[in-house]
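re: the backbone from monday

yeah here it is again, tokenized this time
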């Protein structure tokens, strides 16, 4: 009963000064709302990036042409034709743990159909490309090994191409022209959306890489190779084995004196890099928002000290009728914690609302996590205990006689 009476006394004291209580909790409200909003935005961005990474496919290892030094000039990924079709075929045959390989040639051309034209990305790929990318077709079918061997004039297209060149939506079986060469549309890919780089993955025409190299671009080298490992655990070993194989094939024996003329990126490597950046931003923005909570805590301590001074005579009367110092300590400490928790609760509601509003206005994905809500509430309660303890202790140590004489 004693603790219940103490809690009721604390709540009555807060209710007597409603406006001051609200203003005192305002710092906590703003701090918690800022934490919830910022973390929700970062979690949403992280989730969106992870879905974009997942759109690459499962257990994908990307091998790019380039990344070498020649005459003091460095070339980036894809900047030099150092990979060949034989390299890609060797990866599929000689590297353990590889389940699918697609040699890749990238180009950008104007395509025409139905009196319409559109500048798009042309990808020369193997039949396993849709398997590696985990990319379904909404209609039609993928080209085959026979199309590859015969340098067939066939293609599959993304939804953006359908929207731009086939207004009626029926693209399968129709013809589009690349550099005035007619290619028959065999299938339409499902929608993938934006890539990690922010480009439209559906704005693409995919043809057999032999057709791209011999009919369209007249190239002899590849832009890269798409590889699928048998499992996520096998990725790192596959990357290492591909590196060793390509160094052997390209006669790069002394790696201390010669840089690799290719670049390898695993899906897990990309995932870890993005997760690390997102975590850094979470800690940074969370720390900045946490300063608001500390400022709010200082405000609580300041108001509680004022309250102790104002209620000195009340404290003396309570002690005179039998209240112990621990009761006074508990009352003021409860007042501080209640203020913090009310501020934390209102801050959570304001933060969730702000995150939803931000998402609607900017069309960004936001994700409110349960952990951020729980941590914010716990932290706000801890702020109340930490900054409320000194004023509560000061009130508990008042001498009853001096308190009763206080004017």
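seq for it, each position gets an aa:
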């Amino acid at each position: 009963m004693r603790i219940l009476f103490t809690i009721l006394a604390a709540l009555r004291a807060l209710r007597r000064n409603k406006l001051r209580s609200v203003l005192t909790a305002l710092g906590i409200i703003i701090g918690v709302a800022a934490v919830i909003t910022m973390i929700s935005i970062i979690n949403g961005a992280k989730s969106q990036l992870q879905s974009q990474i997942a759109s690459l496919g499962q257990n994908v290892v990307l091998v790019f042409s380039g990344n070498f030094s020649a005459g003091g000039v460095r070339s980036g990924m894809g900047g030099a034709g150092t990979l060949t079709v034989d390299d890609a075929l060797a990866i599929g045959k000689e590297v353990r743990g590889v389940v699918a390989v697609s040699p890749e040639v990238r180009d950008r051309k104007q395509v025409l159909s139905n009196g319409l034209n559109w500048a798009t990305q042309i990808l020369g790929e193997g039949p396993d490309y849709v398997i590696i990318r985990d990319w379904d077709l909404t209609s039609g079918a993928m080209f085959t090994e026979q199309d590859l061997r015969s340098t067939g004039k066939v293609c599959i297209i993304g939804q953006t191409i359908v929207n731009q060149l086939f207004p009626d939506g029926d693209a399968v079986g129709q013809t589009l022209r690349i550099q005035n060469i007619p290619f028959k549309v065999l299938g339409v890919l499902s929608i993938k959306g934006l890539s990690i780089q922010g480009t439209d993955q559906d704005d693409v025409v995919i043809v057999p890489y032999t057709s791209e190299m011999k009919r369209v671009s007249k190239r002899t080298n590849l832009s890269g190779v798409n590889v699928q490992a048998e499992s996520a655990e096998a990725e790192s070993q596959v990357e290492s084995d591909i590196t060793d194989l390509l160094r052997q094939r390209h006669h790069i024996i002394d790696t201390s004196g010669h840089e690799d003329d290719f670049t390898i990126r695993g899906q897990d490597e990309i995932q870890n890099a993005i997760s690390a950046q997102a975590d850094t931003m979470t800690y940074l923005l969370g720390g900045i928002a946490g300063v608001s909570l500390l400022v709010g805590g200082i405000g609580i301590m300041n108001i509680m000290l004022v309250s102790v001074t104002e209620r000195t005579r009340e404290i003396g009367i309570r002690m005179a009728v039998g209240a112990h110092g621990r009761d006074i300590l508990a009352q003021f400490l409860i007042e501080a914690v209640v203020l913090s928790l009310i501020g934390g609760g209102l801050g959570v509601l304001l933060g969730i609302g702000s995150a939803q509003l931000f998402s609607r206005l900017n069309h960004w994905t936001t994700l409110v996590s349960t952990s951020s809500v729980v941590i914010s509430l716990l932290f706000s309660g801890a702020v109340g205990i930490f900054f409320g303890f000194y004023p509560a202790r000061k009130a508990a140590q008042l001498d009853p006689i001096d308190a009763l004489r206080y004017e």
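The CA atoms of residues 155 and 218 lie 17 Å apart. Confidence is low (pLDDT under 50) at residues 68-79.
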